[in-house]
Amino acid sequence: MPLLVDAEQTWVQPAIDYFTYSAAIMHNKGDNPIVFGTIQTYLKDAKERLLLVTKAADKMGVPMGFKLVRGAYMSSESKLAESLGYASPIHKTIKDAHNCFNGCSSFLLEKIANGPGSVVLATHNIESGKLAAAKAYELGIGKVNHKMEFAQLYGMSDALSFGLSSAGFQVSKYMPFGPVEMVMPYLLRRAEENRGILAASGFDRQLIRKELGRRLKAAVF
Ligand SMILES: Cc1cc2nc3c(=O)[nH]c(=O)nc-3n(C[C@H](O)[C@H](O)[C@H](O)COP(=O)(O)OP(=O)(O)OC[C@H]3O[C@@H](n4cnc5c(N)ncnc54)[C@H](O)[C@@H]3O)c2cc1C
Known about the structure:
Order of helices and strands: EHEHEHHEHEHEHH
Number of strands: 6
Structural class: alpha/beta
Distance between the termini: 48 Å
Largest sheet: 6 strands, parallel
Radius of gyration: 19 Å
Shape: globular
Strand order of the largest sheet: 1-2-3-4-5-6
Strand content: 5-15%
Bound molecules: flavin-adenine dinucleotide
CATH class: Alpha Beta
């Protein structure tokens, strides 16, 4: 069972990366990594950092695991950058963040198709899901194996999760748990930061309504 270490705001991330990559050097052996780092592709330097880590890991012969996300701390990153007067580390437009996610995803899939390593694509974005699934297919990466999986938050983008799972891909649903006073602020932060997710859950509701209608019709006629 792999251990995926989350990514947080840029001012604490160097320390998290230090501990994660040290643990990866100690524990990742053979083909299947146990300790995974997280790359946030809303950051302008995401691709550059991903290249640096993979290059260093290759040199040391350490198989790496990465969880790829867009990133959940847009407002706090922008607020701090503005208050201290430095340029925001976040891409200028959402299109750049999408391109960065899809570019990093493609890079990682090519990497694991030709060598050791694993990737978890943690996204609710249907376009990114489709692109990655097509790329995995093209590269011949086995669907149900330990090299690649998709992940969504529990209760979010179920249509994407079910679609990928029906196509044979491994899919996880992340379920936060813990004391209410810790879980509620976590969920509120996600709701506030990820308006895209809320739009996607609207799409899910639309699909559920359509399915309910279909079943009602089937039961009546
Ligand atoms: C399994 C799982 C694990 C996760 N773990 C982490 C984690 O460790 N660390 C973490 O930070 N987040 C984590 N997340 C949250 C993740 O970052 C959010 O789900 C993500 O931000 C929502 O993006 P999306 O890929 O679902 O796509 P979309 O909903 O298509 O994209 C929305 C995202 O795009 C980015 N964005 C929006 N507007 C702009 C803009 N103007 N400029 C640049 N970028 C923009 C933001 O990141 C925003 O959240 C995790 C999510 C999942 C599903």
